[in-house]
């Protein structure tokens, strides 16, 4: 295989200056030295754990006040390097590697780049004999957008904690920094709420297709949050209201408009269920649920859903949304909602997750003028539950087919009309799981389109280009294959 070039990285770095005279070989006696900050050491340990299995080298990790890269790898926290809270500078010379950043998050992102500069064999879980050469030169990098995420729908089909952790690994590999968990829907309630135990004992026992369902205990959720945080990823939990609530109505019928428990639902229709916006007990429920979610969610964002509440209209809907927004704000959290919540009154910091398929949306543009910011998830570019092609065995096609180029060739900064780029926080790729039942199927839909979304969120617009992206992406097929990760061998990518 062709040697890795400094510019082969995905997402494309902001600035790449190759120096072919500066190649460096990782050798068995190499040492990794980090600044004495615990988070810097953690990044160094993460790097060592990525490199040890395939190299078989000990790669000891030590710390020093001023780490030196003499024939090793130095991870240096250095305020002078600038590059914001997520950027990094990577220098590869004949005397070793120096990775510097203002924060440990920057070091962590630099580690993902470093990993990609080694041959694909570095993904082996057992030692292989390989010349572990790193291309010489300097990369200076920092993200375009602060919010770069993916969503996993664990409500339609439940996924065990270990599967969610693997998805987090895929996000970290491409410098994504938010994991949105769609925790509740008609078919299942997936997060334990102590004050409302039947949400999981009853609501957690179903899923699409009559499988056993399941749910996360608070300990499970803490494990996911902690694993994500170690990879500089913020978890955004979604409790979808007022629609998409059949599982909650089964558990607590006083929430239902007719006060009768509906039968459990394991189909895939949408828009038929809603909590009673005229019953004060609904708002007690909302306060209980979001109070407990706020207490177990270190991140600032709580997602209130708001989509497809077809039977809750006009003032009834906006009034409900405004009360839920206030409950979230009083908990000291920032609200996110699908863009249907746009007509409701603005609350400070409000984020709309836009999932339209046509950039003309005056209601959303008006909400932005009133202070809202956007996370962009176009159904016809970022919905990774869409099929690649007609013969994709799982997935949907209501927003059209999304091949890799469709996922790549658009611009989050200008996608929604009359919304200035400054109001765009970033992008998110939702993966809905009506037809997805395993980690392998999740990976088939995520890869290779997730890196496309990740590049849109991270890379400067100036580096955007399908020809360059597809050739850089081609080099990742062998990486995923070596790592045992399932992916779609999309015909539009020139795999080696
Ligand atoms: C925000 C949103 N609400 C709907 C819509 O997206 O389409 C998804 C399938 O693509 C579906 O699962 C979801 O319930």
List the helices and strands and how they pair.
Elements: E1 15-18, E2 24-25, E3 32-34, H1 38-55, E4 61-63, E5 72-77, E6 88-93, E7 96-101, H2 104-117, E8 133-134, E9 137-141, E10 147-153, H3 161-173, E11 178-182, E12 184-185, E13 188-189, H4 198-201, H5 218-230, E14 234-241, H6 246-251, H7 280-296, E15 301-305, H8 314-330, E16 334-338, E17 351-354, H9 362-369, E18 373-376, H10 404-408, E19 424-431, H11 439-446, H12 449-458, H13 466-474, H14 476-483
The site of ligand NGO has 10 residues, from loops.
Q: What share of the residues does DSSP label as strand, in percent?
A: 15-25%
Alpha-beta classification: alpha/beta
Spatial strand arrangement across the major sheet? 10-11-14-15-16-17-18-19
What are the low-pLDDT stretches, counting only 5+ consecutive residues below 50? none
Distance between the termini: 8 Å
- Average the pLDDT over all residues and give the rounded result: 97
What is the helix content? 25-40%
